[in-house]
Each structure stands twice: as C-alpha cells, then as structure tokens.
Design goal:
The protein is an alpha+beta fold and 319 residues long. 31% of the residues lie in helices and 17% in strands. The protein is built from eight helices and eleven strands. The protein has helices at 67-82, 114-120, 154-173, 226-231, 236-251, 263-271, 284-293, 304-317; strands spanning 25-33, 37-45, 53-61, 91-95, 103-107, 176-177, 186-189, 193-196, 203-204, 211-212, 233-234. Helix 3 runs antiparallel to helix 5, helix 3 packs antiparallel against helix 8 (304-317) and helix 5 (236-251) packs antiparallel against helix 7. Bound molecules: adenine. One of its GO terms (biological process) is cell surface receptor protein tyrosine kinase signaling pathway.
Length: 319
C-alpha cells in the first residue's frame, strides 16, 4: 500500500461533482491485485450523502502502471459516472487531484468476486442451502469481517444469470460494450445481488455497433467471441458470447473454461464448430441458452433483454 502513495503529478481534469478528499479515506487492506491495478478496502467519511464512515472499495494503480493503464482507469471513471443500475457497480467518488494517487471509489461488495464466491461454495455442490466452511481459502486473521458461510442453490445460479443479464441489458441500452464479461468481473453484494464490474476495457459504441480494437492489452481469449478473436470486433453480441461462458462458470461453480485446451488452438476449434459440452448438473434448458450465446453468427444470439426474460421465466416456473 505504501508504494501506492507515489504522488500523482499528472494534470487530470478534476470533476468537482465527484471529487473526494483523500484525507477522508482510511485505507484498510488490499482486496485484490491485477497486473497494474489494485483494489483496496477503505472507510470513507461522509461520502455520497452517507453520514459517518462507509466501507468502500478503492481502485488504484500500482507503481509500475503506465500511461495506458492510467487512461483505462480514467476511462472507467468517465463511464461509471454515466451508469446507474442495481446490477451495475456504483461509483461513489474519485480522488484525482494532484499530489496523490488516482482513486476510484466504488461501492463495496461484501462477498467479493463471484468466481471466488462460487469456488468457496464447492463443498456443498448440488446440496442447496447447507452451510459450508470455506476450506483451505479461509484466512480468518486477515479477512476478519468476511461473511463466514458460503452457500449457493440451483435457484441462486439462475438468479445470478438473470441479474447479470439485466445489468448487461442496461449497459447495451447505454450503447456500452463491456469486452471483459467473466465471473471474475462480477461482484456479489449483500443479499446476493450481482453487480457487473470492471469497466477498464469498456468502450462506447458509436455509429455502427462494432468496435474495432486499436491495440494489444490483456486478452481474455476463453471468453472471447470468434469475431473478436479474428477481427477484433466487439459488440453487444460478442458480450453475449462471453455471457454464455459466464453462465458455464456459474453452473460449474467457478471452473476454468475449456479445461485442457490451449488458447492457441481455441480459435480453430471454435471455427470448426467445437463447443464446451453440457456440464454435469446443468439442465438441457440452461445448456441450450449457453449454446445460443455461442452461435457462430452473432445475429443468431439472443439479446441481453431476451436472456433476462428467459431467466426471469425460469425463476417464476421454479418452486
Ligand atoms: N474486489 C474488487 N472490487 C471490489 C468491491 N467493489 N467490493 C469488494 N471486493 C472487491
């Protein structure tokens, strides 16, 4: 964390509507780290209309981050200011003034990433609503106030898919393409509310609905649609492909997709029609939804609105 205190001497335009003073933030611990970024847990004093201290997540850059990563963080800031939906992570403020690190202050999701949560629920696989301990990942000394039980039912899985589809339907209405939709980028908040998160790669779609990626960056190959892999075309339809992989992650409680398949061979396999098989414990109905998301022709894939409707119907039909 000390390394994070390296001063921000860049000239970033401060938005007074969202600017939050760094000295009203108490940094508590590291929640997660990426290659160039870091998410911290903190307490913020009187933020976003809340009186007193609120637990928040703070997104910032590591010391070795470059211009590209700073631009991605600022682009995430700009997009988060525009969005407001119960299934999309909410921005609370930002610290961008000179003399300190750039902080994006976002709502804290108490269960953390959905992938991690699902993996913690594995011991009770297919036995819904039974309490389980967290097994080897449990570190009570550090995560002292982390929820202590992890449970997931078959209904939860459909509810997660429904909530994520609703969040994504909202983003597609906003003409936003996420480009990195995966269980690791969904946060789980209190009451098992899913929040689409990690907007670092998100782009506005202008004119025609295809976004042509300019350059490199990290590439989530196993979540990418064939048209993204071959032609760097990103649309709401390529997000739907990724959503299909995310649904596969949900039913497998956070397994890694295409096990045993090298990323180098994936594109040709997909082009020749190969798709992941139906996982154990996955209904034919749910598998058909996944397969629709993985249609080679993007136009044949359902929209997020249609997907949300399907999951809503499945929830209403269940007992
Ligand atoms: N990890 C990354 N972002 C988070 C957030 N907003 N809440 C909790 N854990 C997180």
């Amino acid at each position: 964390i000390a390394a994070d205190l390296a001063a921000n001497n860049r000239n970033i335009e401060v938005d007074p509507e969202w600017e939050f003073p760094r000295d009203k933030l108490i940094i508590e611990q590291v929640l997660g780290e990426g290659e160039f970024g870091r998410v911290l847990r903190a307490k913020a004093l009187n933020i976003a209309g809340n009186v007193g201290y609120t637990t928040v997540a703070v997104k910032t850059l590591k010391d070795d981050a470059g211009e590209r990563e700073l631009l991605d963080l600022l682009s995430e800031y700009r997009l988060l200011k525009e969005v407001s939906h119960p299934n999309v992570i909410r921005l609370l403020g930002a610290s961008t003034s000179p003399g300190g690190p750039v902080y994006l202050i976002i709502e804290f999701a108490e269960y953390g990433s959905l992938r991690t949560y699902l993996r913690k629920c594995r011991q009770i696989k297919s036995e819904p609503n039974i309490r389980c301990s967290t097994g080897e990942q449990w570190t009570p000394t550090v995560q002292y106030d982390e929820p202590k039980v992890f449970t997931v039912s078959a209904r939860d899985i459909i509810s997660f898919a429904w909530q994520i589809a609703k969040g994504m339907a909202y983003l597609s209405d906003m003409k936003l393409v996420h480009r990195d939709l995966a269980a690791r980028n969904i946060l789980l908040a209190a009451e098992k509310v899913c929040k689409v998160s990690d907007f670092g790669l998100t782009r506005d779609v202008y004119e025609d609905d295809a976004y042509l990626k300019k350059s490199k960056g990290r590439v989530p190959v196993k979540w990418m649609a064939p048209e993204s892999l071959s032609d760097q075309i990103y649309t709401n339809k390529s997000d739907v492909w990724s959503f299909g992989v995310l649904v596969w992650e949900l039913v497998t409680l956070g397994a890694s997709p295409y096990p045993g398949i090298a990323i180098q061979s994936l594109f040709h396999l997909l082009r020749s029609g190969y798709r992941m098989e139906r996982p154990e414990n996955c209904s034919v109905e749910l598998y058909q939804i996944m397969r629709n998301c993985w249609e080679a022709d993007p136009e044949k894939r359902l929209t997020f609105h249609e997907l949300a409707e399907k999951f809503e119907k499945m929830l209403s039909e269940e007992v």
